[in-house]
Give the backbone structure.
Amino acid sequence: PSAAPTHLRDSYIPEFSSREKGYSEQSQFQDCLALFFNGTKNMTFSHPRFAALALAAFLAASSPSATVAFAPRSASFVGPASTAPMATSSTSLGAIGVLARKAKEAEVRKYCENGPEESTLEQVQAMKSALEAGVPPPSGPGLLQRALTKRKGTISIVAEYKRKLDNKGFVDEIFSPEIMSPAFREFFSSAVAVMADERTGGCTYDDVRSIADEQESARGDMPGPCPVICSDLIVDEVQIARSKAFGADAVAIDVGVAGADRFGTFVDAARALGLEVVAEVNSADEAQAAVDGGATVLSVLGGGNPAEKYECVSSLAVPEGAEVCAINKILAKDNKALEEVEEAWVSRDLGFNAVWVSDALYKNAAEPTESPGAVIAAMRAKSSVKWASPKAQSGRGEGAREYLGDIMM
């Protein structure tokens, strides 16, 4: 493998050869699989043994039984070829979740070794001081929760900014935060999220800062600034401190990745810095664990239908006096239709307070600044799948005089 041509060397991994003796083959295998999961296509190694482990990882990526055999805490993982039901434990991650967390932990470790920004270190110290003094419980809904919780019969929109889409075929390039941020606000998004995990969203914390600064520039205007959510795979408190340092108003934390016990610690750390928390959940168990950990804004992940997802948050045991804001995170469909708009309407009618929209904002038009606003306006429209369908209006069609969202009835 080390003799491979230079153009094939996407990732060279010398650190495998210098691991301490206690570094098991299982851990080496998981690191290889994590690299494949994060998009690495070609690797070179300092020893054939590590290349063999990488080959095993590649084969395991398409073999559920092999993945379960190697990955710890993965009994709930079921590959796409299996028809077995998926477990819904709030404390057990699937193999992919374990590997995603492992890769992020390595990234954060490297970030800390290289030296965090001075502003982040200041927030870390502020967090420690606040936690030592004791963080008082919130007196009521925060800025983000109030922005997302409107009167019954309406739906709020969380517009997510990304530089890289899950499906690369729709949009070749997305405009800069300075262009997209005001577009989100002017079409009345209630909040703006930034996918700060560079592997999955192509953004960095600098994009969080850019959008936070642009939103702040609208203070005193109508519409005013939107709350900004930093959406990263949170595995350490330093990421929360960094989110605050770069201007975020809230952080998104995956309950399944954090684990129920650590999730509560992350909530306390966020509150110590005045940040709200959006708890990302995949099941009713995780949703209840999030509420027990102090979260009041819950985003339901997954690709199930809205009714199934609403069941995760419809029967929660909530502390007296507390209110929960429920968000449906809508996944983009792999087509040019407008099913995501219908899902937003259905989510509203079920009782969701908001929808979180990402790739679907960018898929319908060649002009990136046009499509997001049109989709946001359509989702906010007071229409219903009972009386109308957005599929009949997919932008400027033949004979159409309006853009999607201008007229829905």
